[in-house]
């Protein structure tokens, strides 16, 4: 009898040993992951305050405050009426598409959230194996929930990422899974982490940078560090104003992705490790772990750049841009989801 029990006992001991080993490995992996995750600035949506009054930085200039509505009462009512007609349009979503809003804010101190200077919706379509980078121009007129018609960039100043995401979702009928935001200083550091970016300039852009930040660029391909690329991304009065400005921002982001493709796993790990402390986001730990595991695959996808408003699908009210919402929503959905 005892001889029959010994093999079973050995098997149980082996199984127990394997389970203990796996438990230790999982505990170590979890501990390492938590160390990484805790370096990032995770903010629950419910912990973000929303300010219904205008906001200004403590040492604010004219650009460091939220903007009041410049629409007449008649135009504001018309905009709200146009969007109300689309209330029955359901927000689009898909298990094959991951949407994350990347936000660059113009905050220079911690006394306020800052206006969103750059808003790029990154849509990873796994079935198409494409990444869509869609810029939303800061001067777009939208209806901010519980506030009213305002420029899109002021939504971030009043309620940071959660309010900006809600504004885009309600105005453009698209579900956005998460957001990640950086301020000017962090954006420059992120670019430096990948070794800078290579961008092609035309002469007017080179002249602007030479005069504003003391570079010595000429037309053609140039290598930029983080500070130089940040200045390039903020050029507003060269070329086709904000339309080219959003294009510059997407070009920089595309270059960061392309540079990341050249990194091996260890270098990519170092990049993520150093980048996380610079980013504020609303991605829970479990979700972020899953997304990071997919990054080596995602960064190989084809990149498609786009911009809202689309050409021919907007009008001006003074200097303010009002999209043709019905057609814009349809085109946005068709582009990202193929519907």
Summarize the model shown.
47% of the residues lie in helices and 20% in strands. With 339 residues, it is an alpha/beta fold.
Structural description of this entry:
By secondary structure, this protein is an alpha/beta fold. The protein has one domain (40-337): Aminopeptidase (3-Layer(aba) Sandwich). Helices cover 47% and strands 20% of the residues. The strands form four sheets. Strands 1-10-7-2-3-4-11 form a seven-stranded mixed β-sheet, sandwiched between helices. Strand 12 and strand 13 form a beta hairpin. Helix 4 packs across helix 6 (226-233). The chain is globular, with a radius of gyration of 24 Å. The termini are far apart.
Rg result: 24 Å
- DSSP helical segment count: 10
- Side by side, the strands of the main sheet go 1-10-7-2-3-4-11
Task: Tell me the series of helices and strands, N- to C-terminal.
Answer: HEHEEEEEHEHEHEHHHEHEEEH
Low-confidence stretches: none
- The count of β-strands is 13
Mean pLDDT: 83
Number of domains: 1
Described by the principal axes of the CA atoms, the overall outline is globular
Structural class: alpha/beta
Oligomer: single chain
């Amino acid at each position: 009898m005892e001889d029959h029990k010994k093999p079973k006992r050995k098997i149980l001991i082996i199984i127990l040993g394997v389970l203990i080993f796996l438990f230790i490995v999982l505990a170590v992996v979890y501990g390492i992951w938590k160390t990484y995750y805790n370096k990032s600035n995770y903010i629950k949506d419910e912990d973000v305050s929303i300010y219904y009054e205008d906001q200004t930085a403590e040492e604010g200039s004219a650009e460091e405050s939220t903007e009041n509505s410049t629409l007449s009462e008649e135009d504001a009512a018309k905009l709200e009426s146009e969007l109300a007609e689309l209330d029955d349009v359901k927000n689009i979503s898909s298990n094959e598409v991951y949407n994350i809003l990347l936000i660059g804010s113009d905050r220079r101190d911690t006394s306020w959230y800052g206006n969103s200077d750059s808003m790029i919706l990154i849509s990873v379509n796994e079935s198409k194996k494409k990444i869509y980078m869609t810029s939303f121009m800061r001067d777009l007129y939208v209806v901010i929930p519980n506030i009213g018609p305002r420029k899109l960039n002021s939504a971030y100043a009043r309620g940071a990422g959660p309010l900006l995401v809600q504004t885009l979702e309600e105005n453009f009928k698209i579900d956005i899974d998460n957001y990640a935001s950086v301020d000017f200083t962090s954006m420059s550091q992120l670019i430096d982490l990948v070794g800078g970016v290579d961008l092609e300039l035309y002469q007017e852009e080179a002249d602007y940078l030479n005069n504003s930040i003391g570079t010595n660029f000429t037309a053609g391909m140039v290598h930029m560090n983080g500070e130089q690329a940040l200045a390039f991304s903020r050029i507003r009065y060269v070329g086709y104003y904000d339309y080219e400005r959003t294009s510059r921002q997407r070009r920089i982001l595309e270059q960061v992705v392309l540079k990341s493709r050249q990194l091996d796993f260890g270098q990519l790990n170092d990049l993520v490790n150093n980048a996380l402390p610079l980013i504020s986001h609303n991605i829970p730990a479990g979700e972020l772990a899953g997304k990071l595991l997919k990054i080596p695959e995602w960064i190989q996808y084809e990149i498609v750049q786009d911009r809202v408003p689309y050409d021919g699908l907007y009008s001006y009210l003074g200097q303010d841009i009002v999209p043709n919402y019905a057609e814009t929503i349809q085109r946005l959905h068709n582009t990202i989801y193929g519907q």
